[in-house]
Amino acid sequence: MEGYRILKNTQVIILGVCIAAATIVSSVILSRGFLKLMKFQKEVITVTGSAQMSIKSDYTVWRTYFWREDTDLSAAYKGIMEDLEKVKAYLAAKGVNEDDIIVSQVDTTTIYRKNARGTDTNEIEGYRLTQGLEVRSSDVDKVTEVSRTATDLMVEGIRLESWAPEYFYTGLDELKVEMLARATENAKLRAESMTKATGNTIGAIRSAKMGVFQITPVNSTTVSDWGENDTSSLDKKVTAVVSASFAIE
Known about the structure:
Elements: H1 2-42, E1 44-56, E2 59-70, H2 73-93, E3 101-103, E4 107-114, E5 120-137, H3 140-149, E6 159-162, E7 166-168, H4 172-196, E8 202-217, E9 235-248
Antiparallel strand pairs: 1-9, 2-5, 2-6, 2-7, 3-5, 4-5, 8-9
C-alpha cells in the first residue's frame, strides 16, 4: 500500500514536471514567434516608384460657333442657316465625316437699344443668333488642320470663332494598369538598390498605394496633388506613381 502511494506521488510529480516543461517550451516558442512577427512587421522599407510613357492622342473634339445680327429675326435666322450650310460644305470638302459633326440649337439674344448712360432701354434694336457646331473624331490630324484653317470662312462673310481642339486618349484605362505595374517594378528596383549597400535583400511586398496619375504635355514639368489631365496637347506624357513597402531579409 505504501509503495502504491509512493508510485502515485512519483507519477504526479513527473506529470507536473512535464506540464511545467511543456509550458516553458510553449512560452519560448510563442515568444520566438512573437519576436519574428514583430520583426516581420517592423523591418520594411518604403519607397516611391514611378513610370513614364509618351502617347499620342487618338480622339479629338473641336468646337466652333458663328453668328448673325439683324433687325429682323426671320432674316437673321435665314442668314444663320445659310452660314451653317456653308460651314458644313467646307468641312465636307476638307474630308470631315458628316457623322462626326454635331450641330447644336440656335441661341437667340435680343439686343436692346442703349440710352446716353449706356443702360439698356425697352426698345429692341435687333437680334443676334448664334450657331454652335462640334466635331468629334478619331482622325485627329485632319480635325487639327481644319481647326487651323476654319477662319478662312470669314472671307465668305461668316462671323466665326474657332476654339482650340481638345485631345484625348481612348485607351487610358488599359494604359493605367500597365503604368502602375511599371511603377511598382521601379519601386522594387529602388528598394533593392537601397538595401544592397547594407548587405540585406528585399522580400515580399507588404503594401502598395497608388499615387496621382499625371497626363501632361510632353515637355511640361507641371504636377498636381490631385493629378493632371491635359487635353490641350496632341502629344502627351503619362506619369504613374506608386508608394510600396517591401520586407527586408
